[in-house]
Every structure is written in structure tokens, then in C-alpha cells.
Design goal:
The protein is mainly alpha-helical. Helices cover about 80% and strands about 0% of the residues. Helix 2 (about 35-55) packs parallel to helix 8 (about 165-180) and helix 4 runs antiparallel to helix 12 (about 265-275). The longest helix has 29 residues, at about 280-305.
């Protein structure tokens, strides 16, 4: 119980303190959310990805384990979400939003800061979360966008969106600099470190601002089923896949924790783009983020017991 309280106090409280601060400041000053989002996408995220990849060792066997886990878990979650839409006879538009709510998670604004706090003494954990975030970005603009667009008969992969994402190039650049042991002079590395250090606060304050005006109404059984799929079923499938692949230690902990993060904002964005129950999607992102304060705490605690 002491360990659980320490996790809540040392990891979850700082996250939700900054989320609350972001919500409060946005209500007071009306931030330009588009500008903040662009700062994160084009400056903070690429910088922290590059810095982490450049500094930490990722062996081919580790990359294979991570890739195998992510692919198998994605297939499991996508299949389970599809089956649930059939069992509960959801219409096409609701089924689309439900699937994205379960499969896509907030691995960037929420997941990476949490991983940084959890693995402060072991940077490999944060590096694994970066790989998870890259994978999530790929399935967001393939599976996620295809699922949302399928309600209008537009099921093509959006390769352009993937190629426009700067974090992809930051990852490649980081791997090149790491592989060839290219040294970076201090006058360049120092500002990169300063930007990377600021990521956690900026990401969480921005996320807090994005959920500053909650609107909760018409919450149905399907609504809570989707949240349970993201916050409970996803971590349970992760345990099964970790056991199947025989992954252990910090890698297992990082992947298990990475599976527990709340719904992605992109699931709400896609629902809005294609009019697929957009209110349901926006509310689900908010509620899953709030409830994750409990579920992610439990998952972090369980990761230390299991692995």
C-alpha cells in the first residue's frame, strides 16, 4: 500500500497537477491551442525523440521484441474491438469511433511524460515509449484514419500524413547519429537538452488546456465499454503478449505501462472529421484521461510486482 501511495504521489500527482494547471490557465487566458500543438509536434517531440535515441542503446534484439509486441497487441486489440462492435450491434459510425477509442492511445502528450517520471533512473524505459509512440503514430494514420473514413467509403491509407510527421525524421536522424557515433558540439547539445527538459511540462499543460471545458452527457454502456477496453482490456492483452514473447525486466515493465495510457486525441479528431459520434469521442478522451489517474497507478504498481 505504501508503494502504491508513493506511485500516486511521485508519478501520477505531478502529471495531473500540470494537467489541472493547463486547464486553469487556459480558462483564464484562452491559449492558442493550435500554436501549442504545433510547438509540441514540430519542436518538443522531435527534439526529445532525437535526444533519447542518440543517448540510449537499442540493440536489434530489443527492437525486435518491441516490434513483435506492438504488432501482436495491435492485432489483438483491433480484433477484440471489432468483435465487440458486432456483439453489441453498433451502427457503422459508432463502431468506427469505438474501435479507434480502444486501439489508439495518447502515447505522446500523456504517455511520454509518465514514462519519463517512471523511468528516471533507467532511461531505456523512456526510449521504449518513444518506439511505442512511433508505432502509434503509424497506426493512427493507417488503421485509425481508414477506420474513421470507412463510414464514408474512403478507406485509403494516408501515407502523406505519416511522411509529414517530423518525429519520423527525428527518429531516423537520432539512429544515424547514434549508429555512426557522431558527436554533437556542446553549443548545439545544450539547447537541445533545454528543449527536451521542457517537454514534460509543456505537453501536460497543453493536454490540460485541451480538456479545460468538459462536456459530459448521455453517457451510455457502450461509452464505458470503450473506456474499459482502453484502460483495462489493453493492459490485460499486454500481459498475455509479454508472456507469449518471454519479455522480462524493464522492457516488460515499459511495454505493460505503455499499453495502459488513455484514449488518443486523434480518435476524437477523426470522429469530428467524419461526423462519427464526435461528442461521444471527445467525452471519452476526457473521461479516460481522468480515470487513468487510477488505472495507470495500478498498472505501474503491478508492473513492479510482475516484472
Amino acid at each position: 500500500m505504501t508503494i502504491l501511495f508513493q506511485i500516486l504521489l511521485q508519478i501520477i500527482f505531478p502529471v495531473f497537477f500540470l494537467l489541472g494547471l493547463g486547464a486553469l490557465l487556459h480558462r483564464l487566458f484562452q491559449f492558442d491551442l493550435q500554436a501549442l500543438s504545433r510547438l509540441l509536434t514540430y519542436l518538443f517531440l522531435p527534439t526529445i525523440i532525437f535526444a533519447n535515441i542518440y543517448q540510449n542503446e537499442m540493440t536489434p534484439s530489443l527492437l525486435l521484441d518491441i516490434g513483435g509486441f506492438l504488432l501482436i497487441q495491435f492485432l489483438l486489440l483491433a480484433t477484440l474491438a471489432h468483435l465487440m462492435t458486432k456483439v453489441f450491434k453498433m451502427d457503422k459510425k459508432l463502431a468506427s469511433t469505438f474501435k479507434n477509442s480502444v486501439v489508439l492511445n495518447n502515447s505522446g502528450n500523456f504517455g511520454l511524460p509518465v514514462s519519463q517520471l517512471v523511468f528516471q533512473a533507467n532511461p531505456i524505459g523512456a526510449s521504449i515509449q518513444i518506439m511505442v509512440m512511433m508505432f502509434q503514430n503509424i497506426i493512427t494514420y493507417t488503421y485509425g484514419l481508414m477506420t474513421a473514413a470507412s463510414t464514408e467509403g474512403k478507406g485509403a491509407m494516408n501515407i502523406k500524413e505519416i511522411l509529414k510527421t517530423p518525429i519520423l525524421y527525428a527518429l531516423v536522424l537520432g539512429l544515424i547519429f547514434y549508429s555512426f557515433d557522431i558527436s554533437i558540439p556542446s553549443y548545439i547539445w545544450t539547447p537541445l537538452e533545454n528543449i527536451a527538459d521542457a517537454f514534460l511540462a509543456v505537453a501536460l499543460i497543453t493536454l490540460g488546456a485541451q480538456v479545460a471545458y468538459p462536456k459530459l452527457e448521455n453517457l451510455s454502456f457502450i461509452f464505458f465499454l470503450g473506456i474499459a477496453g482502453r484502460l483495462i482490456i489493453a493492459p490485460l492483452t499486454a500481459i498475455a503478449v509479454i508472456a507469449l514473447l518471454g519479455i522480462e525486466g524493464t522492457i516488460a515493465q515499459a511495454l505493460f505501462i505503455a499499453s495502459s495510457f488513455p484514449m488518443s486525441r486523434n480518435s476524437a479528431l477523426f470522429a469530428l472529421m467524419y461526423r462519427n459520434y464526435e461528442d461521444y469521442a471527445a467525452q471519452a478522451v476526457l473521461v479516460s484521461t481522468l480515470l487513468s489517474s487510477v488505472t495507470v497507478t495500478i498498472v505501474i504498481y503491478a508492473s513492479r510486482l510482475l516484472f
